[in-house]
Design a protein that fits this description.
The protein is α+β, with helices and mostly antiparallel strands. The protein contains five helices and six strands. It has a six-stranded mixed sheet with strand order 1-2-3-4-6-5, with helices on both faces.
């Protein structure tokens, strides 16, 4: 009975700490979004959130993305560190997707640095990694890859047609557009 009471108090205290941490992260979202950089016409936010786990990082990344202007392409790369393991989230708005950018492409750039394994959809991708010390290098790699991903005659940040003036080998592999799979009709069984 006494042990049960202590366990219940501990659970209640842990929940209160989690709520306070989540509120603190959401409170910081405005400041983080205000620090967005303009890279090739795309609003870019790259941030390290110390002490934030996977779910918190995703919530914060989506909140930051929601605070950025909708009419301008925006890319949010957020890497949290909890239990000495990084968890990364890349979130793009609709304008960035319309320009041909993809979260899966950019999570690959992050993954090359911190060992992230993961994926997602065109607007949000996430994964967990192993190397916390490489987080600054990962954020710098995404920032450096953005102009390469957006390079095109005329300076428009669009991946469509970007190989008209450049060879594919000049673009980092993580920035290559995905290859479509060829559709093949199903084989008929002849039993």
């Amino acid at each position: 009975s006494r042990v049960q009471e202590l366990l219940e108090r501990l659970r209640t205290a842990e929940k209160a700490v989690k709520r306070a941490k989540a509120a603190q992260l959401v409170g910081a979202a405005g400041d983080i979004a205000a620090a967005a950089k303009d890279i090739s016409g795309v609003a870019y936010v790259g941030h390290q959130a110390d002490g934030a786990g996977g779910g918190d990082v995703r919530t914060l990344a989506l909140d930051i993305r929601g605070r950025l202007p909708r009419e301008k392409p925006a890319v949010v790369v957020l890497i949290g560190t909890a239990d000495d393991k990084p968890s990364a989230v890349v979130a793009l708005n609709e304008a960035a997707q319309a320009k041909g950018l993809g979260a899966n492409t950019l999570i690959g750039v992050v993954g090359a640095q911190i060992g992230v394994r993961g994926g997602g959809k065109a607007d949000v991708a996430q994964g967990g990694g192993t190397d916390v010390s490489a987080i600054p290098a990962a954020l710098a790699a995404v920032e450096a890859a953005r102009p390469a991903c957006c390079a095109r005659a005329g300076g428009s940040p669009s991946m469509s047609g970007m190989y008209a003036s450049e060879s594919r080998s000049a673009i980092p592999p993580a920035c290559w557009p995905p290859r479509s799979r060829r559709w093949r009709p199903a084989r008929r069984r002849t039993d």
